[in-house]
Amino acid sequence: MEERAEGRPTLLDELPGELMMWVLIVSELVVFGAGLAAFLAVRITDPSGFAEAQSHLHRAGAGVNTIVLVTSGWLAACAVQAAEAGHIGRLRSLVAGAIALGAVFLVIKAAEYVDLAAAGISFETHAFFTFSYLLTGFHAAHVIAGMILLAVVAVPGSPRAVETGAAFWHMVDLVWVLLFPVVYLL
Amino acid sequence: MKYQSQKIGLAYFLVAMVLFAVQVSLGLVLGWIYVDGTFLSEILPFNVGRMLHTNSLIVWLLLGFFGAAYYLIPEEAEREIHSPKLAYLQLAIFVLGTAGVVVTYFFNLFEGNFLLGREGREFLEQPRWVKAGIVVAALIFLYNVSMTVLAGKKTAITNILLLGLWGLALLFLFAFYNPSNLALDKMYWWYVVHLWVEGTWELVMASILAFLMLKLTGVDREVVEKWLYVIAALALFSGILGTGHHYYWIGTPGYWQWIGSIFSSLEVVPFFAMMAFAFVMVWKGRRDHPNKAALLWSLGCATLAFFGAGVWGFLHTLHGVNYYSHGTQITAAHGHLAFYGAYVCLNLAIISYAMPILKGRDPYNQVLNMASFWLMSGGVVFMTFTLTFAGTVQTHLQRVMGVNYMEVQDQLWVFYAMRFASGIAVVLGALLFIYAVLAPRREVIEPGMQTPAE
Fold this sequence. Notes:
The complex is a heterodimer. By secondary structure, chain A is mainly alpha-helical. Chain A has helices at about 10-15, 20-45, 45-55, 60-85, 90-120, 125-155, 160-185. The model of chain A is unreliable at about 1-5 (pLDDT under 50). Chain B has 15 helices and no strands. In chain B, helix 1 packs parallel to helix 3 and helix 4 (about 130-150) packs antiparallel against helix 5 (about 155-170). The relative contact order of chain B is 0.10. The model of chain B has no long low-confidence stretch (mean pLDDT about 95).
């Protein structure tokens, strides 16, 4: 970092958006990565119990949610381009679209939670559900945080702010793309 | 010393060092009780001695933080402290409260009294009137330093320091909430205990360390600030949900085992970052500051905090491990090295830096002080190893083999004897430190051919 003072940009300076956002993104990936690793490790101790428990989840809904969230990420990426081109109006409508799809994701997710709860399935039902609730619940909380963040960065609409918000949103996307196969399909 | 009100720090540091001497001396007595269980059992029961040992530690560390804040905030904000009078009043309240606690614990006065009697919760045993006094003193402090910073220059160091100190004071309010349900009681109790040492105190530590690095190495403020923000973010990210590692076996839901294991494992990261920060700053720094003792304590602080809090904490933080090791001497090993590395060394670093300036004996490089670092640190590290081995044997005999607790304690005697010996080194080191910062007037080693300090 010392090189900065001498005028040469460092690798850290080449990161889009705020440095602190990248610290957060890496931290989040480590946490979700550790959670998935622990999930897979515990699954080794009870493969048939995990497979049985997994059959209660809504795979189709989760599949739709994958498409919804990835599309939302695409809108956020388009919003960054709009911000760089200085089209504030276009940027804000793209961000609004990304947020709306985030809301769609949450509705589908909530429907699944309601069904599981109605079937009497809780955190304590099986180790599988402890993990699936924890991982997808944490992820859903990040979807909410990401929606708020996108709304906040759309207000100034500067390229740097939108890049920072979109970077977080892509992380939320990425985590889901990892959670979906491990929790729902494997 | 650029600002007169920085002198306030001196009074705080002096009281802190008196309590430091009391704390380690009591530690030595307790160490002997482990060797000879009947020692002083009538006059100073073990539980009372332990309360005094831990409470005096917390109080002197806090006084050191306050002193550090009063010392560094005028320099950072570039103006005098809002009201020196209030600062001394705050210190007087702390001294009175501390005296009240000692007398109440020692003679067990007012047993069961709502206001005056001790409360019986580990670390939060203080009678309610003392707790109220702590809140009043904390409010005075926050008012005083916040007014100073608001009217002056705002830097990353003061921002993070104030964030830590405000958080520390607000979280203490949970000490007043004591639900009769024991599980809930413990749950909120950790809001104070854990979120202090693994949350807000880390912010205080990072900001004081950043101040020391700025002064001692001469690295650009911009670089120091970037590190400081990253460290603060990492500390809060891992530390807040890391509270879950105390919720494994107290009746809280089972998912805490995974939240606690994962987030608390990451608590090693900010401590590693602080160690990397300290060393990188020293390597890159162009300044050759004559106060080598302060530099030694700063580097020692970052390193021993990484091992004590980070590595020794991780050692027993995974719930699968903690199921066996919970509450054994492993915990004691971690507690000693973590507190020593992170917070004792930090306070001694800022004291070593500030005292020569406060006492007008700058510059001198404090060879005696450096000797005390090696003596004290050597003692604590040795103690950590003896307790770790004791804890390993204890875990196996007691938790795996199911041997009776007291029979296991007999097996641990040799470790306790060695721990007592290392305790003697720590006490001598502490006394040497106090002598070194107070007494010698001239003690300059000729500098080499380096460029002079700026």
